[in-house]
Amino acid sequence: MAKRTFSNLETFLIFLLVMMTAITVALLSLLFTTSGTIENHKDSGGHFFSTTPNPPATQGSTATQSSTATQRSTATQSSTATQTSPVTSTPEPPLFQNFSGYHIGVGRADCTGQVADINLMGYSKSGQNAQGILTRLYSRAFIMAEPDGSNRTVFVSIDIGMVSQRLRLEVLNRLQSKYGSLYRRDNVILSGTHTHSGPAGYFQYTVFVVASEGFSNRTFQHMVTGILKSIDIAHTNMKPGKIFINKGNVDGVQINRSPYSYLQNPQSERARYSSNTDKEMVVLKMVDLNGDDLGLISWFAIHPVSMNNSNHLVNSDNVGYASYLLEQEKNKGYLPGQGPFVAAFASSNLGDVSPNILGPRCINTGESCDNADSTCPIGGSNMCIAMGPGQDMFDSTQIIGRAMYQRAKELYASASQEVTGPLASAHQWVDMTNVTVWLNSTHTAKTCKPALGYSFAAGTIDGVGGLNFTQGKTEGDPFWDTIRDQILGKPSEEIKECHKPKPILLHTGELSKPHPWHPNIVDVQIITLGSLAITAIPGEFTTMSGRRLREAVQAEFASHGMQNMTVVISGLCNVYTHYITTYEEYQAQRYEAASTIYGPHTLSAYIQLFRNLAKAIATDTVANLSRGPEPPFFQQLIVPLIANIVDRAPTGRTFGDVLQPAKPEYRVGEVVEVIFVGANPKNSAQNQTHQTFLTVEKYEATSTSWQTVCNDASWETRFYWHKGLLGLSNATVEWHIPDTAQPGIYRIRYFGHNRKQDILKPAVILSFEGTSPTFEVVTT
């Protein structure tokens, strides 16, 4: 072949192309060098930011095959953290975006897990097992990135009791496996809403494993998958937008459930506040550049315990109902859990805040028991229970949730203060059993090894402990001390002295079999969006504890040039460490103080640690922070006490058969009830062929098709599972017909999974469904 020659013009153009390529490579290298340790990687799907709005990703799970082999659960089959190295994917191109605001992504995914044969997490009440579902539980993720994509933060609010350390570690490891260093321990916050009606079983420390009646890998994996999916959806849907902040009070939805503890705080400090609860709600409004709605995050201090400890239906309680209402309003035409708009009602300093606003009363006499130890003259502390504003717990949940929804909606609509400025994050792992606290310039104190006091066993007015313990105990009991000493051994003099005046019931920090009973290593974390700082609290701060931390962190920022910062307390984040009271509240030793596991100086330690993080962000010295001791990830956890057994249908019946049909005709306000031959619903957390246990469907004559109007995430439906003997069970579906129901022909469908196992073969999970005869809804 003849040798190719180039003209002078061609040579010049080639030279120009080479020079432009070299300059581009140099600029790219400079960009990624100056962006510090924060690197941007494509995910496995090759998603990029876009300057034009993207269609929202589907807000739900994809179906799986109808039959899967199921291996027996053993102690050695507990989940392990993903041990994969970061992906080596091609970096995303730099985003030369010339707009004011942030890249914003929102995502929501189901994380419900088991709805049967598992304890509900929150009340620690033996026998309060899940037996069905009222509403689905969701993980709601929000990703914010600077215009060039260099820095980003992730906030995830999850409809669970609290985030466990094991859950966070597994999520972080899987994020690293998929995204490399894009989403990390410092810029990802996982926060639980603190519903007391979600499944337990996703912990690794012995106190919580025992309270959960074992570790459920089935539920753990479903939660992890849901959290990751919500982040994936948010990552995929990122688009340029703006964030606005607004604040306002919510009245008539809270009381302080430990007012006698609150009164221990200095009168001069209490005089600065008009209430013994924090009434202020903080709302972030997220929109795209066209002003179209993307999502909302709200922080407000309230316990999601409108559903009391007699409840057996999995649900997201009052804060979840607020999310449900706002998402339904913004996502018109979508079923619950679907649609592009995502609304999170996140937890805050709710430690001593109850939604049961009628206050504590003796349920046997009706008289008030609002006293220092929350006891009744007849029946003691077990009779002293606070009541919500409704006729029952369902009604109370709706009343409180609707009030929060209404206020958040108003604040969202009127939000005009734009959040601007850089994004930053700081994180440390800290050994909370060994923090030296500076009380003043000359005196120090230390935190303690974990321990629970006597009043922990008393419970609260929202859910009593069941045994004859009372709140406010500052002395032990020889009877219980003897039982503890014989079974667990005696607490050391060191731990007893450190925790005074707490009388120690359980010296958990000195117990390590089969694994440590409480965490030693705890996360402290702050992320900032311009003038907003989100403090990730690993537990439940009381009202005054939250006020002190906010004030201290705000002052620390101000002292280093970051004036007028809004500091929010985000509760139940990253790892659970029970409660954090003020030093003064600790002296009263009510439930919250007895559950302050690191001793009387716990709050002072956290204030010191969070001020250190704030200083690092304000002075741009985050890189100098020590990483801290990495927390453990335990193997061979205690398996659930409830065994997996084969499901059976009655002779002559099959799964999904109708045992009790609906009546032929109903009116608005009535309840439709259909009973089916059922199977254990926990099978459905393992095989997700169906995304709901039920549907209510209306016949559309014009299209001669059935239209789904409700599913098991709808507030007006309830799914009850009735466990029988030898694998037999029934499933009851209720539809509480709402005022909005249109007259017409309806039917109810039931979707389930049964466990089958033939001799010498592994168990399989098979999907089935059942359909009721039709019925009619008529006008009054």
Tell me what you see in this structure.
With 780 residues, the protein is α+β, with helices and mostly antiparallel strands. The chain has 2 domains: 103-438 and 510-624, no CATH class; 657-778, Immunoglobulin-like (Sandwich). 22% of the residues lie in helices and 27% in strands. Strands 2, 5, 6, 7, 9, 11, 12, 13 and 17 form a 9-stranded mixed sheet that branches. Strands 1, 31, 33, 34, 37, 38 and 39 form a 7-stranded mixed sheet that branches. Strands 8-3-4-35-36-32-30 form a 7-stranded antiparallel sheet, with no helix packed on it. Helix 2 (165-179) packs across helix 4 (217-236), helix 7 crosses helix 8 (393-414) and helix 11 (543-559) packs parallel to helix 14 (602-618). The radius of gyration is 27 Å and the shape is globular. The chain starts with 7 loop residues before the first helix and ends with a strand. Residues 102-608 form the Neutral/alkaline non-lysosomal ceramidase N-terminal domain. Its EC number is 3.5.1.23. Its cofactor is Zn(2+). Residues 43-94 are annotated as: Disordered. This is Neutral ceramidase.
